[in-house]
Design goal:
This protein is α/β, with parallel strands linked by helices. It has 9 helices and 13 strands. Helix 2 crosses helix 8 and helix 3 packs across helix 4. The radius of gyration is 19 Å and the shape is globular.
Length: 326
């Protein structure tokens, strides 16, 4: 009995113990919140956008909310002496916040990226339309992400610092649908400057697009799924089936990664310290492995920085399933 318990503990430690991987912070990170004004169907709208970026200013501990802390220079001037930076527009899940992926957005900004995450104007917490011919209700989302890219690339303080030849889009959950629309799935939103797409646990990108529309996204992609959400259903299909459909139809090169112990909300930070909120957030170890592969993917296929294959082609112990097609 004791021997079996020792073996069990050893196996747990072997699979979840930290690795030696760490994000190398090459830049201090600045953080600011912008309020953009834009027109939507003849109505003036406001879009709040969180932006992380390289800066020469000294960072300080910053509380985003609840137990979520970062290390940023609030409202600092962007670094203007290091040339242009690659850019990522990232869309949160339905009813979420642009701060949701802060564990990732702050870290990739420290590698020399400008990252913008809007607070989408979601009008309800419940998704009611789940077929391609019913998605008109949600087209405000790609319009908002399109607005973020247009404003930041054409106005100060970031227009002179964003390299429009090195741009990426991404999102979590419903943000996968949102970002995919800009990557070729919906022609009227297609921004051909976007060179790769990153998707965290997105059933919506499967049930709101046809196979043909998914196949129209002809850029490198990385898709994540949490192991604990494999059999959770979105409509009639499981998340495993929906993820498989997305991966099958995407163009090479493409990556599919399943994260050990993760559920659908493990790709979010905790912005509240209330009881029960731990299940609505990932763990430090999960965040570490998501950052590890996501940053390597974007560095390789968008920033064009060498040395990423050693990470991308090897399986971390926190990854329970890894499929790569190049």
């Amino acid at each position: 009995m004791v021997f079996n318990r020792i073996i069990k503990i050893f196996l747990i430690l072997m699979f979840i113990s930290p690795t030696t991987f760490a994000i190398e912070r090459k830049y201090n990170v600045g953080y600011m919140v912008l309020d953009l004004r834009y027109d939507q169907n003849g109505l003036q709208k406001k879009l709040t956008v969180a932006v992380w970026y390289p800066t020469n200013a000294s960072p300080k501990p910053f509380q985003y909310g609840g137990p979520a802390w970062g290390n940023v220079a609030l409202n600092a001037n962007p670094a203007g002496d290091s040339g242009k930076f690659p850019f990522l527009a990232f869309s949160h899940g339905y009813g979420g916040t642009g701060l949701g992926a802060q564990f990732f957005t702050e870290e990739i900004a420290s590698r020399g990226w400008i990252v913008a995450c809007p607070d989408h104007n979601d009008d309800a917490k419940k998704i009611t339309h789940t077929a391609p011919d019913e998605r008109n209700k949600y087209l405000y989302r790609p319009q908002e992400l399109e607005t973020v890219i247009r404003v930041l690339t054409t106005s100060s303080p970031f227009s002179s610092l964003i390299d429009t030849n090195r741009m990426a889009a991404g999102g979590h959950s419903f943000g996968g649908f949102t970002s995919m629309a800009l990557c070729g799935a919906i022609p009227e939103f297609h921004d051909k400057r976007i060179r790769a797409i990153l998707m965290f646990s997105t059933g919506a990108a499967a049930y709101l697009f046809t196979d043909e529309e998914l196949a129209s996204v002809e850029i490198p992609s990385m898709l994540y799924l949490g192991k604990r959400e494999r059999n959770q259903k979105r409509g009639e299909a499981t998340m495993k089936e929906l993820s498989g459909r997305i991966y099958k139809n995407m163009s090479d090169p493409k990556y599919f990664l399943e994260v050990r112990g993760a559920n659908h909300f493990s790709f979010n930070i905790r912005l509240s310290g209330g009881a029960g909120t731990k299940m609505l957030s990932g763990t430090p170890r999960q965040f570490e492995v998501i950052n590890k592969y996501s940053i390597a993917f974007l560095e390789k296929y968008v920033a064009g920085r060498p040395g990423q294959d050693e990470i991308l082609d090897n399986k971390d112990r926190m990854i329970t399933k890894q499929i790569i097609s190049k």
